[in-house]
Design brief:
Chain B: This is (2Fe-2S)-binding protein. Chain B: It comes from Bradyrhizobium betae. Chain B: InterPro entries: 2Fe-2S-bd, 2Fe-2S-bd_dom_sf, 2Fe-2S_ferredoxin-like_sf, 2Fe-2S_ferredoxin-type, 2Fe2S_fd_BS, Beta-grasp_dom_sf, Diverse_Oxidoreductases. Chain B: Keywords: 2Fe-2S, Iron, Iron-sulfur, Metal-binding, Oxidoreductase. The complex is a heterodimer. Chain A is of the alpha+beta class. Chain A is 33% helix and 26% strand. The model of chain A has no long low-confidence stretch (mean pLDDT 95). By secondary structure, chain B is an alpha+beta fold. Chain B folds into two domains: 86 residues, Roll (Ubiquitin-like (UB roll)), CATH 3.10.20.30; 76 residues, [2Fe-2S]-binding domain (DNA polymerase, domain 1), CATH 1.10.150. Chain B is 35% helix and 14% strand. Chain B has a five-stranded mixed beta sheet with strand order 2-1-5-3-4, with helices on both faces. In chain B, a hairpin with a 2-residue loop joins strand 3 and strand 4. In chain B, helix 3 packs across helix 6. Chain B is elongated and about 60 Å long. At the A-B interface, strand 1, helix 2, helix 3, strand 3 and helix 7 of A face strand 4, helix 4 and helix 5 of B.
Chain lengths: 293, 174
Amino acid sequence: MDIEETAVKARAFSYFRAATIDQALDAHARAGDDARFIAGGQSLVPALSLRLQAPRLLIDITHIDEMRGIRREGGYLRIGALTRHCEMLSEPLIAEFAPLLHAAAPFVAHRAIRNRGTFGGSVALADPASEFPAMTLALDAEIEIAGATGTRRVKADDFFLDLFETALQPGELITAIYIPLFKADQRFAFDELARRRGDYALVGCGMLATFAGERIDDIRISFFSVSNTPTRVRGAEATLIGSSLDAERIAAAQAALEGDLAPPDSDEVSPAMRLHLARVLLGRVLGRLGEGA
Amino acid sequence: MSGFDETLLDDADETVRVRFIVNGRKVACEVAPRETLVDCLRNTLELTGTHAGCEMGACGACLVQLDGRAVHSCLMFAVQADGAAINTIEGLTESGVIADLQAEFHRRNALQCGFCTPGMLVNAHELLLQVAQPSREEIRDALSGNYCRCTGYEAIVDAIDAVAKARSEGGGAT
């Protein structure tokens, strides 16, 4: 049998390494949009190898300097789209101003994947089981998008539309993600439940809260692996705002999840099981938030 | 604006020339854009110590060092590595930087069929460069992306643990 029929190999494509954002956008447009941008490639390369995708052109964006770097800009931390997952662990600016991302990073895949995978790539793919897209929701992040008509910024709340579907239009590129700077009166917490470390989570959750003393003034809680998109649980959030974190409030937030989440059926975990796990996890992570974690 | 040449689209499987530094030596080779780095290393450069296992980033057998970091060579195309410095298990062996790890794997039978061993060593090497004294839990966590289908994990963790302790005491494990 011909090896082509059996091997796990991508269909033939052309390769172009872009030096600037404009070059990358131009190449995409001129390939008639039958092109894919590649950054870390940790999800795209398997998809190509399995021939789930077969573009005629691959545009390598990893050498575009404008998409690198982490810096403060006004009240935000601007994280270049090409920032690698491992940098979320090593960069002091992340630990200081976006500590929720720092806390979530060790849970993202495995070390060698984190060495190549990029923040912008993870958000662009919008895998509902991934940690970082969900954390952009909890952090009220804004996503900077470059396209043929210029650059725009989209709130994370408006970015994730459906399964692997986002506000990105064909040929558009995420160039950076803006995270509001972490403040002294805020606390964060993160955890996930997975069968093995590095596996996709059965359910995961991260949160950012603003406190006035022990009273919660504002809280954003985002779940992943519970739906077709990363999901904010607004009912649970509402039960917590204006109160301190006691056992009764935590129980009320857990109860509210039933209205917030409608997990899809899957071979692996039933909807009821996933909802149960989400409740357990929410209680655990809120408990940690109460301790000031 | 320079850059994209549309005639490129007509030549989807035409080979292109890439240059990188493999195990300290400058190398140039002709690759089709769809050729993965692991296939280039094994088939073109005949460096067969890097193993192609699952070819989708799950098993860790294909780990190499790319610009000093462990990466899956099945999860990138060789053209993406143009200009990079790559160390394979052959290079790490020649330079002696993992000699103590290799000796300890040998001594403790931390391999059975050996298919996963190159990836385990590349990963363990990076772990010990970043964390001088990892706990057993940290070692297990670091190895979570490396499958050993003979299930020899216990001896592998033992070996890495022993080398970490020996290195921090200033001596070798052997």
